[in-house]
Amino acid sequence: MEELKTFPLFNTCTDEELQELLQSPHRREEYVAGDLLVNAGTPCRSLMLLAQGTVETRMGGANGREVVIEQMRSPTVLAPAFLFAEDNTIPVEVSMRTDGVVWYINREAFFNFMTQHPHVLRAFLQTLSARSRFLSGKVKGFAVKGLRDRVLDHIRKHDTITNVSETAEQLGVARPSLSRVLAELQADGLVERINLSNNVKAYRAVIQK
Amino acid sequence: MEELKTFPLFNTCTDEELQELLQSPHRREEYVAGDLLVNAGTPCRSLMLLAQGTVETRMGGANGREVVIEQMRSPTVLAPAFLFAEDNTIPVEVSMRTDGVVWYINREAFFNFMTQHPHVLRAFLQTLSARSRFLSGKVKGFAVKGLRDRVLDHIRKHDTITNVSETAEQLGVARPSLSRVLAELQADGLVERINLSNNVKAYRAVIQK
DNA sequence: GGTAAAGTGTAACATTTGTTACGAGGGCTT
DNA sequence: AAGCCCTCGTAACAAATGTTACACTTTACC
User: How many H-runs (helices) and E-runs (strands) does chain B carry?
Assistant: First the structure.
């Protein structure tokens, strides 16, 4: 139960309230790295709470092209947008990147819980909204920007790039393409290559005036 | 008030319930085609209900490249995902494509209304979820598919293409590129050109066995 | 009916990104 | 130290899409 209190969704809840929620059907499941949590197309029938570990969501293409959409660390709500949808099939594949723990809580019980505890409802709406904003930004990134801008955005968000292959995968581009763009950005003075304390090479955005 | 009853969000509501909601601050605004409803970056403080007309949402890029993301017909909830978000600025520009009517309803009043009427809450959650799914599909489209597939998807959704320029804009590609792909699809027998009853030319997907 | 405007198909060329291949360097094991 | 594996940079080429330009048709309007 202490695990649940780490969630923003519940951090306004008293112990009594959580006890009340846990009266209803639920379960706690442990996973190891690599486990497949949900297959694309699976219907979402429970609230899924990632209490420990890191997951990776992927959207597969028919042509074999695959794009890593996102990595999420605990604590986080998985697939909140499909729990109450009319079509509640989850369109992405979710797998564990590390060992981890997921709680499953009955949908209707959670729904009733929300109606009785407005602060939880509000937090859930915020969670849902954050997902929408994230996707919205994603669309904007793909639709409106060239690769150079996408790379710069990514560096600014993550401070540095220490793993080109992985970053290329996250951005949905081929590794040599990313290498090339990084070289260009370096030539233009927008990005520099530095050595981290642990003597690892990294790319970092040059501080602009 | 009859306008509000056309919304799926309220179609389970009695007249009394709607009366109750309309006790709280709200207003009804009329617009003409071309009016700008919300500028990108505007915070969202009220529930916005498009009761009449059609809107167009755009995401602008710094480089001048613009992509039409979506058109929405009444009745529909505008920007539901930003009403209760922590960062509630709307990231898109919304403008009227036709004359129309928008209702604005106080956020907190609506929130309280939802907590007291679970069927409205459920409908609102479904609306939010549908938006997420839409965006999710959009991301998948951009990330995972080539232009040919995007065009085929678009034709299947819309049955026909009667306006190449507009379609190109909606898909976020240059018009000649779309023309070229349409010609290829035609050569491959996946798309055919037909004459509509009103003697307008159109592209249509060939029925596959 | 004539004229301007808008939409369209098409071609040539530029730009961006993907693909494939190869060699250099670093860390790890033996 | 040798061998291996992984990541990376780089180059040459291929594929996809954008850009520009022009001629043709249809539409709208006077």
Answer: 7, 11
Residues forming beta bridges with residue B60, ordered by sequence position: B66
Average pLDDT, chain A: 89
Q: What are the pLDDT digits (tens) for A24-48?
A: 999 999 999 889 999 988 999 999 9
Q: Shortest CA distance to A121 belongs to which of B124, B189, B127?
A: B124
Residues 132-191/B with CB within 7 Å of nucleic chain C are 162-166, 175-176, 179-180, 182-183
Highest mean pLDDT among A135-144, B51-60, B136-145: B51-60
Instruction: Using the CA of B182, give the nucleotide whose C1' is nearest.
Output: C9
pLDDT at A199: 74
Which nucleotide's C1' sits nearest to the alpha carbon of A171? C17
Contacts with A176 (C-beta within 8 Å, 6 or more apart), sequence order: none
DSSP string, A107-169: HHHHHHHHHH-HHHHHHHHHHHHHHHHHHHHHHHHHHH--HHHHHHHHHHHHSEE--HHHHHH
Q: Can you give the distance from the CA of residue B159 to the C1' of nucleotide D24 in angstroms?
A: 27
* Chain B interface includes A131 (CB < 8 A): yes
Taking residues A68-90, what's their average pLDDT?
A: 90
The residues facing A56 across adjacent strands are: A71, A95
Task: From B147, B103, B141, B108, select the one nearest B7 (Cα to Cα).
Answer: B103
Which of A67-76, B22-31, B105-114, B158-167 is predicted least confidently?
Answer: A67-76
Residues 6+ apart with CB under 8 A from A118: B111, B112, B115
A63, two tokens: 């042509």
Contact check, Cβ <8 Å, A129/B63: no
pTM, two decimal places: 0.86
Q: Measured between CB atoms, does A174 come within 8 Å of chain B?
A: no
